[in-house]
Amino acid sequence: MANSPSGESVISRVVRLVEAFDDGHRTMSVAALSRRSGLPVTTTYRLVDELLAEGLLEREANADVRIGTKLWELASRSSRMMGLREAALPFMEDVQSVVQHSTTLGILDSDEVLYIERIGSRESMVDITKVAGRLPVHGTSSGLVLLAHSPAAYQELFLSRPLQKFTDSTLTESSELRRHLAQIRQQGFAVMPGIIVPESSGIAVPVHGPSNAVIAALSVVVPRNEEDASSRVPVLMAAARGISRSLGWRGELKGALRQSNGRI
Amino acid sequence: MANSPSGESVISRVVRLVEAFDDGHRTMSVAALSRRSGLPVTTTYRLVDELLAEGLLEREANADVRIGTKLWELASRSSRMMGLREAALPFMEDVQSVVQHSTTLGILDSDEVLYIERIGSRESMVDITKVAGRLPVHGTSSGLVLLAHSPAAYQELFLSRPLQKFTDSTLTESSELRRHLAQIRQQGFAVMPGIIVPESSGIAVPVHGPSNAVIAALSVVVPRNEEDASSRVPVLMAAARGISRSLGWRGELKGALRQSNGRI
Questions:
Q1: What pLDDT score does B262 carry?
Q2: Where along chain B do its domains lie?
Q3: In terms of CATH, what superfamily is A79-261?
Q4: Contact (CB<8Å) B51/A11
Q5: Other CB atoms closer than 10 Å to residue A213's CB: what's the count?
Q6: Which of B82, B97, B119 has its CB closest to that of A131?
Q7: CATH class belonging to A10-75
Q8: Helix and strand element counts for chain B (H, E)
Q9: A32 touches chain B (CB under 8 A)
């Protein structure tokens, strides 16, 4: 949290300001923003004024600032996430209405799972995912599905790193993970009980893009020991095919071939 | 589309670059980005490099650029829209499952309706709303609900401007609109057939925030002459109360008082 090093670009300082906001800090004073971003107070005041003028920040009644509507709008209307989540949402509703637990859509981004959509069950108490939230790849069924379908070189790089053990069930040994990834590719889904918190299990399947590459994972988070994979996997698979198809996927034959060759 | 005037801040030039992307232009070459943003080519190249370095833009395989995951993530995780849409989504699913037509959540932003969530019906062909899309206030049932509950001074300012007539049914006369706004406040909903496109009708109800102010409008878009308001308005009202309650609203008595006093 040092002062901004001289020569840091305006853009990178703005990113630091915006990153200071999160779920627990949705509004704050400019002084707090300076503290949390590590930028000098005068720099912070000047940048906040510019960001307010552009609508990227907004001022609350008490003079605190928050992320502006404009930033959300700019980021939303044209990103590739929006196309994906729009295609996925109707199918996610179908899954949600049948499974009655949180349904999520995640992508692999910067070595983590980034959840780009989530339909929450009002009853579900076992789900730590949230929209625009991140979770570790090896701690989630979605992450393992995405990793299983990543290029072999990326998988090996990932498996070469030390991995945190979140629960007794978290897989951290590369040989064990490699075996699981092969199994996920072969069977077409992942069921992972309690790998990040003991009380919940994830079930995930791959979503294909037009080029047949796996671009996202569709998952449900259910209470542990209530996985009921035999009834839920087919629901997820049907929905994932629907999403893939509406994204322009026509890779059923290729998909079958890939599955039979799918070992690293 | 002139060159960037000297003295324009980096932030405002970045906004111009990002605004060059939209639904029809999700990826483009840096040269096209320069053209669409009106920024000089050299400036565009320099800013694009910085934005790529921060992950705010991403490069496609063919060297075109697109809005980056990071921008969406920064904007999403902390904005007030996310709290609202997270509260609303389960109730919107309930509406969608009963009404079987597109369900939207809109806010008033910069004199327009900004749709922050939409659950689309796969069958629905009559809905021009989209997430992060904007529509004119007087062309949508949501806009009229939001206007009806805006401060009187804002309403008068809005009604003093010339308003575009989109269809034969668009209300553009201030006296007529004022009458409709009063009616919307009194009855607690708006049913507007064909005011922006002839073939669709909007039905909208207000959503209250913790301070009892109307902060959003919940609506369904249905084929014209199939409004069926008597069955759909109660579904929308129940859902809007649910959303309001989960946002901390406890204003039932105040709501009733407001309704009986609700004239400008």
A1: 39
A2: 10-75, 79-261
A3: GAF domain (3.30.450.40)
A4: yes
A5: 13
A6: B82
A7: mainly alpha
A8: 10, 9
A9: no
